[in-house]
Amino acid sequence: MKNIVIIGAGYSGILTAKKLEKRLRKQKKLDEVAITIIDRNPFHTMLTELHEVAANRVEEDSIRISLKKVFAGRKVNVVLDTVNSIDFESKRVVGGEAEYGYDYLVVAAGSKPTYFGTPGVEEYSYKLWSYEDAVILKDRIHDLFRRAACEPNQEEKKKLLTFYVVGAGFTGVEMIGELAEYVPILCEQYEIAPKDVTMVDVDMLPRSVPILPEKLSNKVEHRLHKMGVETRFGVGVVGVGEDYIELKKGEEVTRHTAGTVIWTAGIESADIAASTGNELETAARGRIKTDKYLRSTKREDVYVVGDNVLYVPEGEEKPVPQMVENAEQSAEVAAHNIIASVTGQGQLEEYKPAFHGVMVCVGGRYGVARVGLPNHMLNLPSFFAMFAKHFINVVYFIQVLGWNKIFSYVKHEFFTIRHCRSFLGGHFSNRTPSFLLVPLRVWLGAVWVFEGVMKIVEGWFDAPKLTGFFGGASGWYDSILNGIQAATGAVADAAASASGTAEAVVDAAASVSGAADAVAASIGTKIFDFNIFSWVEFIFVSGKDLASSTLSDLAFKLDIPLMNWFVDNVVLSSDGMQMFMQIMIVVMEILIGLALIGGLFTTPASAASLVLQFMFVCTTGLYLNTFWMIFAGIAVLIGGGRTLGLDYYFLPWLKKQWKKVGFVKRWYLYND
Question: Transmembrane segments in this chain: where (predicted)?
Answer without folding.
Answer: 630-651
